[in-house]
Amino acid sequence: MEIMYLMIFLSLLMAIGFLFAFIWFIRSGQQDDLITPGMRILNEDKKTNN
Amino acid sequence: MEQLVQSPQTNTKCYHCGETFADEIVHFQEKDFCCQGCKNVYELLQDHELGTYYTCDVNPGISPSLQNFDYLNKPAFRDKLIQFSNQDISKVSFNLPSIHCRSCLYLLENLHKLDSGIVKTQLNFGKKELSVWFREQEISLGALASLLAKVGYEPLLSEESEGNEKKKRLSQQTQLFIKLGVAGFCAGNIMLFSFPEYLGIEDGNLKYLFGYLNLILGSIALFYSGSDYFKNIWAHIKLKKITIEMPILLGVLVGYSRSVYEILSHTGAGYMDSVSGLLFFLLIGKWFQQKSFDFLSFERKYTSYFPLVITKIMQGKEEMAPLSEIQVGDRLRIRNEEIIPADAILIKGKSNMDYSFVTGESEWVAIQSGNLIYAGGKHHGEMIEIEVKKDLQQSHLTQLWEQQAFKDPSFKAENWENFANQVGIYFTIGLITLATIVALYWIQVDPSKWQNSVVSILVIACPCALAISYPFALGHGVRWLSKSNLYVKDIQALERMGQVDTVVFDKTGTLTLAKSEAPNVYLHRDLSENELDILYSLSLQSTHPLSRRLCTYTQSFGDRKLLSISSFKEVPGKGLEARWKELHIKIGSAKFLGINPNVSPQDFFSSESQLFIQIGDDALGYLDFPWENREGVEFMLRKLQHHYDVFLVSGDKTNHAASLKDWFATEDHMKFECSPMEKMDFIKQLQAEGKKVMMVGDGLNDAGALQQAHVGIAVSDDHLHFTPASDAILQGRSLSRLPEFLNFSKKAITLIKMSFLLSLVYNTIGLSFAVQGNLSPLVAAILMPVNSISMLIIATWGMNIYGKRLKTN
Fold first, then answer.
1. Fewer Cβ atoms within 10 A, N terminus or C terminus of chain B?
2. Dihedral, CA atoms, B346, B347, B349, B352, nearest 10 degrees?
3. Tell me: the pLDDT tens digits for B241-266?
4. Which of residues 38-97 of B touch A (CB under 8 A)?
5. Chain A residues touching B193 at Cβ < 8 A
């Protein structure tokens, strides 16, 4: 049963990883604007004149 | 680069902005532009290889503005606007209301090609907000704003407080999301760690480890995710108030402390799963509620309320346009007693502005041309022309109407919302008492059951339904009614509509409508061209229905010239007078002109349809304008009388009663020769008899009565003469549907009462299980938000079913 301790530890770690991914996703503002990115993709980048 | 100015052509549009040409066409590179400004933008974009702008959409541009934003460079403004700044780069966000298509996105996100000082731009299309990162050494804030204006996107610099509030709200939503996520995480993991407990697996060490993990996760859930509840309740305790959230938190705390004790003393596994699960569901409910409120408040935007018309001057001609189409730079004509729709500059004429709606000050302010006038002011005097300076959203007219100050506060005391709060307090006290009694009982009889039952009682009986049904049902009601051309101010007004038992109508302009036919002429001689011009110019000044009709009448003789008349005066309900050169002109009722009524023929009964004219010393006689009943009025009145007491108050002469007799129950139900003051007194009198009165009037002479009434509905056909005193605006052609609307509001109230009842039944059943200790707190925690959501669904579906029926009728 010793392996249980490791597995619990790992599962918790993974869950916490997902939690932080979620917090990061909210904070980074990905859900703030759900309209513009869809439009932006339609504007072709013209040849860049560098 | 040749460039020439051509004479106007037909059916061509500006290549840049799509506007039809006014006076001249600017021709440039085989393209036509309506003005130099549009051409300049085109040239600018071509020079910077942003021609793609024109391929995303047809005529995507907006006529540029040349407003100077240099004042933004002052530290006072700069500090408010700049969101972030280091030595090199600053960031600022602008609100650009004119964003409308993909081309806008293209141009604005390529702004860095126009000026090397701009590093990066990012557009939020939904919010019409542009974030700009730029180097202040190279381009100042003012220059940046001016550049935006120059390409057609004039920034709307909203008041700072508004911006801050928005930001705060947004971060609140972000926080709610995070709290929701954390609560879900904790609840899920606690349930996972509780599996051995659920399955009855006994393993000493693992059990304790799981216990401690649950304790940590449960504490995070309670003190982080539930922190808003603590703050809210603490604020209420400080004010010595009880909220309906209190029993829930109490339940959660009881469950939590019991769990902490069990885990630490190794006597049990605790109820951390219930505690965190409950918080998770509570937060979901909160999020759902917030979302729906956002949706409703979006639907309730000002534009849906003012479908009314303004007089715009387009290319020298008058044109009617909906209020929502007002744009900065538009020229508007404002007649006597009309309300200024948006902040503007007075271009032509003089005005006495009545700002009493805005400031409460009844003194009129004299305003000369060139000065600024503010939205919400009521214009008195000759017709003026104004140029709109601010967008409608920015003007405070919108807020005005929503201001409750116009209403007697006593009206507000009777509504359900207060009822809900009142009941909520007794409910809370009762619930806590019940929980205490039950706890004491179980401690005596079976100590293992007391926490379970207490927590379940406190959780299951949450009266959240009280707080949900009312705003949702009525909010949807307001939305549906606005689709049928009845624009109700707020949900309280709709609720009051459901309580009405008496309806009072005004006659002229409400039940009757001006016929489009020519008037019967009783003049002793024909009018000269010059006199027609004078009458035209005079009648243009006023919004009174008779003036409007006189205006149309004079125009039927051919195009009229606008003369400059002076000393204009309108005596409400009586008539107009003014001077033109040496001539003194008076039009209005016989009394106003000082004519002996005996002179006129016997059919002198409808004072409101006869217009006497006096030019100089010559009393010419009068014009009799025929009125007709609005379509379906008779049927509407009959229908109303089945359920309501229906009255008529009118400024007309009593003799007119005969033709209306059939419409009203008895002669007592008709009151004639009322001044605006007497109309109001009549309403008061009815109210003194304990009646809930709805007044339906034209909103002009009836302002007092509309305000006095339980519900005041202003009927309007075209012009912008609503009064803030009214609770709702009804479009004239929908008047015949009034019984349906009243019925609809009654149904809404019934729906609310039904859902209260249902919620009560539900709570009673839940409580009967909880008291016996047979209901697990977790089940209660799931049932509670299910209850709230079912209330919400009932309110939404019910109202939508009623609403659809309303619309198809």
1. N
2. 0
3. 666 677 778 778 888 888 898 889 88
4. 49, 52, 56
5. 8
| Whether residue B35 sits in one domain with residue B76 | no
Q: Is B182 helix (H, G, I), strand (E, B) or coil?
A: helix
Same domain for B556 and B604, yes or no, is yes
Residue B591 above 70 pLDDT? yes
Q: What is the domain count for chain A?
A: 1
A39 and B125 within 8 Å at the Cβ level: the answer is: yes
Of B625, B644, B668, which marks where a domain is finished? B625
Closest chain B residue to A23, measured at CA: B178
Domain enclosing residue B359, as ranges: 304-402
> Has residue B364 been placed in a domain?
yes
Q: Which of B142, B165, B188 is the last residue before a domain boundary?
A: B165
Please report, for the domain that includes residue B114, its CATH number. Answer: 3.30.70.100
Q: Which residues of A touch B (CB under 8 A)?
A: 1, 4-5, 8, 11-12, 15-16, 18-19, 22-23, 26-27, 31-36, 39-40, 42-44, 46, 49
Rounded to the nearest angstrom, the minimum Cα separation between B178 and chain A is 6
CB contact under 8 A, B206 and A4: yes
**Candidate from B177, B203, B213 with C-beta closest to A1:** B203
B16 and B108 share a domain? no
**B69, B221, B194: which is closest to B144 by C-alpha?**
B69
Say whether pLDDT at B358 is over 70.
no
- Decide: B787 and B281 in contact? Cβ < 8 Å: no
CB contact set of B105 (below 8 Å; sequence gap of 6+): A36, A39, A40, A43, B99, B123, B125
Tell me, what CATH number does B577's domain have? Answer: 3.40.1110.10
Whether residues B18 and B90 share a domain: the answer is no
What pLDDT score does B719 carry? 43
Q: Do the bridges between strand B351-354 and strand B372-373 make them parallel or antiparallel, or are there none, so unpaired? A: unpaired
Residue B641 resides in a domain: no
Answer yes or no: do A36 and B174 touch at CB < 8 A: no
Whether residue B39 is found in the same domain as residue B95: no
How far does B185 lie from chain A, in Å, by closest CA?
Answer: 7
CATH number, domain with residue B330? 2.70.150.10
- Given this model, what pLDDT does residue B523 score? 79
In tens, the pLDDT along B60-73 reads 777 676 666 776 77
The residue segments making up the domain with residue A22 are 1-48
Same domain, B17 and B115: no
Interaxial angle between packed helices B204-220 and B160-193, expressed in degrees from 0 to 180 and rounded to the nearest 10 = 170
Contact A43 B102 (CB under 8 A): yes
Confidence at residue B50, expressed as pLDDT on a 0 to 100 scale: 75
DSSP three-state, residue B577: strand
Chain B residues whose CB is inside 8 A of the A45 CB are none
ipTM: 0.82
Q: State how far residue A44 is from chain B, nearest Cα, in angstroms.
A: 9
Domain annotation covers residue B175? no
- Chain A, nearest residue to B106 by Cα: A43
Between helices B450-460 and B738-771, what is the axis angle to 10°? 180
Residues B539 and B590 in one domain: yes
Q: If you measure CA to CA, which chain B residue comes closest to A28?
A: B174
Of B622, B673, B627, which is closest to residue B649 (Cα–Cα)?
A: B673
**With an 8 Å Cβ cutoff, is B127 touching chain A?**
yes
- Number of separate domains in chain B: 4
In a domain, B496, yes or no: no
In contact, B380 and B374? CB cutoff 8 Å? no
